[in-house]
Amino acid sequence: MLDIGASELLMIVIVAVVVIGPKDLPRALRTAGRWIGKVRRTSNHFRSGIEAMIREAEMEEMEKKWAEQNARIMAEHPQVDLSDHEMRPLPSSAAGAEARGAPDAGIGPPPPPASANDEPQLPLR
């Protein structure tokens, strides 16, 4: 943002001490800090307003494209009704194991069935 080197910063400090004086320098720095804080808050508020306007414009553009696409599909396929179509997640039966929160479900072969002759195995040390 600002390209101030060490020598330039030292020169600013020396001039500030000479012009303002060592007694009033802390008060001047506090005042400058408050002004910088106000400028930053105003800048952030302005930036967030601009970003909100950009998001709204993008949403309007996406809605316009969606409407154009629906109109094109309706013209090509009059038997399809997209008037009440909305995007929603797939039901868990269609989405697979990942949608149910079990990412490992169904991966790999099933465990062998336990028989009556099997002895319980103790963990090895």
TrEMBL record:
<dbReference type="InterPro" id="IPR003369">
    <property type="entry name" value="TatA/B/E"/>
</dbReference>
<feature type="compositionally biased region" description="Basic and acidic residues">
    <location>
        <begin position="74"/>
        <end position="88"/>
    </location>
</feature>
<keyword id="KW-0472">Membrane</keyword>
<dbReference type="InterPro" id="IPR018448">
    <property type="entry name" value="TatB"/>
</dbReference>
<feature type="compositionally biased region" description="Low complexity">
    <location>
        <begin position="94"/>
        <end position="107"/>
    </location>
</feature>
<feature type="region of interest" description="Disordered">
    <location>
        <begin position="69"/>
        <end position="125"/>
    </location>
</feature>
<keyword id="KW-0813">Transport</keyword>
<keyword id="KW-0812">Transmembrane</keyword>
<keyword id="KW-1133">Transmembrane helix</keyword>
<comment type="function">
    <text>Part of the twin-arginine translocation (Tat) system that transports large folded proteins containing a characteristic twin-arginine motif in their signal peptide across membranes. Together with TatC, TatB is part of a receptor directly interacting with Tat signal peptides. TatB may form an oligomeric binding site that transiently accommodates folded Tat precursor proteins before their translocation.</text>
</comment>
<keyword id="KW-1003">Cell membrane</keyword>
<keyword id="KW-0653">Protein transport</keyword>
<keyword id="KW-0811">Translocation</keyword>
<dbReference type="GO" id="GO:0008320">
    <property type="term" value="F:protein transmembrane transporter activity"/>
</dbReference>
<dbReference type="GO" id="GO:0033281">
    <property type="term" value="C:TAT protein transport complex"/>
</dbReference>
<comment type="subunit">
    <text>The Tat system comprises two distinct complexes: a TatABC complex, containing multiple copies of TatA, TatB and TatC subunits, and a separate TatA complex, containing only TatA subunits. Substrates initially bind to the TatABC complex, which probably triggers association of the separate TatA complex to form the active translocon.</text>
</comment>
<protein>
    <recommendedName>
        <fullName>Sec-independent protein translocase protein TatB</fullName>
    </recommendedName>
</protein>
<dbReference type="GO" id="GO:0043953">
    <property type="term" value="P:protein transport by the Tat complex"/>
</dbReference>
<feature type="transmembrane region" description="Helical">
    <location>
        <begin position="6"/>
        <end position="25"/>
    </location>
</feature>
<comment type="similarity">
    <text>Belongs to the TatB family.</text>
</comment>
<dbReference type="Pfam" id="PF02416">
    <property type="entry name" value="TatA_B_E"/>
</dbReference>
